[in-house]
């Protein structure tokens, strides 16, 4: 059973495309086709508008909070081809950085694990993925993966910093192995895994199962266990769960989680990586207690589906 516990009147003047809670669950960021990003204080069930950020010149598709160890930092991406990094200083939100290196709409932004510092992945309709790394003194290093997805990239999601199983196998006193990895989904119907080697980003795996545009991907958080898990959803109405038990990360297995009757827009893992929320265009709310179970449905203005691992 899925129930509404709170609603927020955002006063956006057009369609809302994304809404993200911060690390502590006390602030909500929303973005809209009205070209604005709004931040609300949502503590104790209330809502107070604390910032109305205006800097984009087109619909804003997605927002992403950085880890709080870096302060209050939010990234946004837009149809206007721009990525803006906003930062709160003394209660006031201002632009920290503006990236204009893409030739088409920027559809997805995702911050990497805090272990790597401030690093942002950006996926664009121009087919490229940019990696923006804050190097200090208001400087950012930019690396670009051109032709990552033909026609365009719709989604990016970072993998955990720790190599699967390394927390279990690591000798006492030694640091676990860290690796920069992320997954992307595109208009070529593909899910792709990327890995940094010697300072360069290289395609690590190409996962094929979807028959239409991949709309979103989500790499599940890790608690150090040997298995890696990724969820993907598509215009084809299907949600796949990809798992890899191979320490080298070379062998991924796809399992069809569910086939919906409409496009599936988003997948999102819980912070412990054991619950997956899925939203789409079938105008229903679906819940399931296990990946293999048939979801139950309740009528709702938007679609959401929750699966437990």
TrEMBL record:
SUPFAM superfamilies: WD40 repeat-like. Belongs to the WD repeat SEC13 family. Transmembrane segments: none annotated. Its main location: membrane. At the nuclear pore: component of the Y-shaped Nup107-160 subcomplex of the nuclear pore complex (NPC). The Nup107-160 subcomplex includes NUP160, NUP133, NUP107, NUP98, NUP85, NUP43, NUP37, SEH1 and SEC13. At the COPII coat complex: interacts with SEC31A and SEC31B. Interacts with SEC16A. Interacts with SEC16B. Component of the GATOR2 subcomplex, composed of MIOS, SEC13, SEH1L, WDR24 and WDR59. The GATOR2 complex interacts with CASTOR1 and CASTOR2; the interaction is negatively regulated by arginine. WD repeats lie at residues 9-50, 53-87, 207-242. The keyword Transferase does not apply. Keywords: Lysosome, mRNA transport, Nuclear pore complex, Nucleus, Protein transport, Repeat, Translocation, Transport, WD repeat. The gene is sec13. GO terms for molecular function: structural molecule activity. InterPro entries: Sec13/Seh1_fam, WD40/YVTN_repeat-like_dom_sf, WD40_repeat_dom_sf, WD40_rpt. This is Protein SEC13 homolog. One of its GO terms (biological process) is endoplasmic reticulum organization. It comes from Takifugu rubripes (Japanese pufferfish). Functions as a component of the nuclear pore complex (NPC) and the COPII coat. At the endoplasmic reticulum, SEC13 is involved in the biogenesis of COPII-coated vesicles. Required for the exit of adipsin (CFD/ADN), an adipocyte-secreted protein from the endoplasmic reticulum. The keyword Transport applies. It is found in: Lysosome membrane; Nucleus, Nuclear pore complex. Pfam families: WD40.
